Amino acid sequence: MKITRIYNDEAGKSHFGEVEIALKDGGPIGMLSEKFGADKIIFRETPADYDFKWHPAPARQLLFILKGRAEFTVSNGERHVFGAGDVLLLEDTEGEGHCSRAMYNEVRHSIFVTLDEGVTF
């Protein structure tokens, strides 16, 4: 399973990338990843006029978008729109960070899950 990540390089610039989550046969219930340690879960409702300029992620965390769409911009100006069902790994906890804004005048519902130290994908 592939998910998008936002990370920072040594110069503090943010970039998009991909992470492959390894899955194994879980029998009749489908394919499963290993268990990853999580610290906290945050439920969030973001207003339809949300436009948050450059900021680093407050922690290394997974973002699960449940409803609505948002555009994320990284340091080189590259932009991607993510919506319901998308998962992002936010790792740009230092440096310039990223921008995020609501799209299509939609309220966004999302869940953030902060990751335990040492969790790697």
What's the arrangement of secondary structure elements?
Layout: E1 2-8, E2 14-20, E3 24-25, E4 31-32, E5 38-46, E6 51-55, E7 61-67, E8 69-73, E9 79-83, E10 87-90, E11 98-102, E12 108-115
Parallel strand pairs: 1-10
Antiparallel strand pairs: 1-2, 3-4, 5-12, 6-11, 7-10, 7-12, 8-9, 8-11
Give structural notes.
- The strands form three sheets. A six-stranded mixed beta sheet has the order 2-1-10-7-12-5, with no helix packed on it. A four-stranded antiparallel beta sheet has the order 6-11-8-9, with no helix packed on it.
- The protein has strands spanning 2-8, 14-20, 24-25, 31-32, 38-46, 51-55, 61-67, 69-73, 79-83, 87-90, 98-102, 108-115.
- With 121 residues, the protein is mainly beta.
- It starts with a strand and ends in a 6-residue tail after the last strand.
- It comes from Alteromonas portus.
- InterPro entries: AraC-bd, RmlC-like_jellyroll, RmlC_Cupin_sf.
- Residues 44-93 form the AraC-type arabinose-binding/dimerisation domain.
- Keywords: DNA-binding.
Question: How many separate helices?
Answer: 0
Estimate the helix proportion, in percent: under 10%
Question: Which strands sit side by side, in order, in the main sheet?
Answer: 2-1-10-7-12-5
CATH architecture: Sandwich
How many β-strand runs? 12
Biggest beta sheet summary: 6 strands, mixed
Give the CATH class: Mainly Beta
Uncertain residue segments: none
Task: Supply the number of structural domains.
Answer: 1
Structural class: mainly beta
Q: Give the CATH H-level superfamily.
A: Jelly Rolls
- The average pLDDT value, as a whole number, equals 97
Radius of gyration: 15 Å
Organism: Alteromonas portus
Protein name: DUF861 domain-containing protein
Domain AraC-type arabinose-binding/dimerisation: 44-93
Pfam family, one: AraC_binding
